[in-house]
Amino acid sequence: MRFSLLLSLIGPALGAIAPPQIPLSSQPAPAASASDFTTFQSTISPNHSIRIKRQNATLCDTPVDQYTGWLDVGHKHFFFWYFASENASPSPDSAPLALWMTGGPGGSSMIGLLLELGPCLMNKDGDGTVYNPYGWNKDTAMIFVDQPVGVGFSYSDHDDTLPDNSFSSAEDMQIFLQTFISQVFPVHLKGPFVITGESYAGHYIPTLGAQIVKQNLLYPHHPQVPLKSVAIGNGLISRPDTIFGYWETLCTTNPGVPEPVFNQTRCDIMAANMPRCMDILKTCNSHPDPALCGAAETVCVDEVTGYYEREVGIGGRNPYDVTAPCDVDEICYSDADLITKYLNLESSFRTLGVPPAIKNYSIMSPEVERAFSRTVDIQISTEPQVHYLLSNQVDVLIYQGNLDLVCNTAGAQRWASNFVWKGQAEFTSKTMQPWASVVNGTKTEVGTFKEVNIKMVEGDEKTTRFALVTVDGSGHMVPLDQPEVALDLLTRWLAGKSFD
């Protein structure tokens, strides 16, 4: 489960329901046909349509309504899985909706659904699911999308059209959401809508959010996507700041470790090499050329990040949690393999109505990963898109598991402090303060936070929220490592409650 390119670059009341196990039936599921799907043609774009079918709890053990399907746009087809909220909205057209996008690039959002925060999670045998009492669909409907095309159950009719940057699917995703909200599930017409995800979603989320805002402003009489906020978990926003954060993560006890991961000799070498790495990455961001940025990446891997990453693998180091072992090569989390096993069952394909074009499901797409690695996408920062969101009164939450290395807390704190915007002065003047959550029935200090609420538009009293929240005892995947805390974090954010 390589959530980022980092490793590849080294080498050439329902909450009280008991969680019963729902194993996959031994009886073959009936084959899905075109008649099983309802198709919605976009009223905005003749090239976009959505085919959707209702699911029962056979594949995902949850009491709520659920639907799967594909967004079809020409030769491209994006897979989605939608779940209603456990707590229904009292309004017929203002039910909350959250979109989840796993990173990578090339990671399937079924990782988030079945391993981390979905209404159901994989059972220990990989042949069924169990109800997740900490699923994120308590107070909001959830939709999980495999994107960009070529990832998971999303596919293209043409093998030579794989995307290679974070902007490539933003247009299709915006029209998909516009059609989905206005025509398929108008209960979400007035929102609020939030985009969330982790890892490389630090690129996906700001670019999609910016595209939504831009289209809403350009076409005010078209159906609007009611984007209220984004919540980015351990996201890759700024590659230089993330690399700079390697030293603090590995050479201090700041992540919450009893002693530094690296010895002084390694730390001194990394520190000595850091200025050269930062200089060449700065040049890359100023002149984003694939050859130049590729050379910058090579320098930084060879001289800084590679000291840890070259030791990653089964039985070795884990880049997603510096305190945990790596159970399997590339993925490190063996439970992720259960997802692949489960979704590749013939009965899973039949129940979902997977088309013949898809021969095999994979949680990661090496082809998409390689396509991105040949461009400058990983090295460029998405801070301009974050700025655009804030300027247009979209709230931004950055949440961080402190034990992560690949998208570390030190790097997030660095870019968030250096980020130039109207709220920078107030944000940087504040210190991180402890926040508490109820864990196993006891109120416990679980991390730190700071946030500001800034009036972004002249003459408008509405404030826009920017928050940085950390979670102790968690690595790259906060909902996996600290599920109770993660649900509380999301619930507070959606409700507009502070973390103090």
Keywords:
500 residues; alpha/beta; Rossmann fold; 2 domains; three-stranded antiparallel β-sheet; serine-type carboxypeptidase activity; protease; signal; Ser_caboxypep_his_AS; hydrolase
Report on this model:
The protein is of the alpha/beta class. Helix content is 33%, strand content 21%. It has helices spanning 110-117, 170-184, 201-218, 239-251, 264-286, 290-309, 335-343, 346-352, 366-373, 383-391, 409-418, 424-429, 478-481, 483-495; strands spanning 21-23, 38-41, 48-55, 66-73, 76-83, 97-101, 120-122, 128-131, 141-145, 155-156, 193-199, 227-235, 395-401, 433-439, 442-455, 463-471. Helix 2 crosses helix 3 and helix 5 (264-286) packs antiparallel against helix 6. The radius of gyration is 22 Å and the shape is globular. The model is unreliable at 1-33 (pLDDT under 50).
SSE blueprint:
Blueprint: E1 21-23, E2 38-41, E3 48-55, E4 66-73, E5 76-83, E6 97-101, H1 110-117, E7 120-122, E8 128-131, E9 141-145, E10 155-156, H2 170-184, E11 193-199, H3 201-218, E12 227-235, H4 239-251, H5 264-286, H6 290-309, H7 335-343, H8 346-352, H9 366-373, H10 383-391, E13 395-401, H11 409-418, H12 424-429, E14 433-439, E15 442-455, E16 463-471, H13 478-481, H14 483-495
Parallel strand pairs: 6-9, 6-11, 11-12, 12-13, 13-16
Antiparallel strand pairs: 1-8, 2-3, 3-4, 4-5, 5-9, 5-10, 7-8, 14-15, 15-16
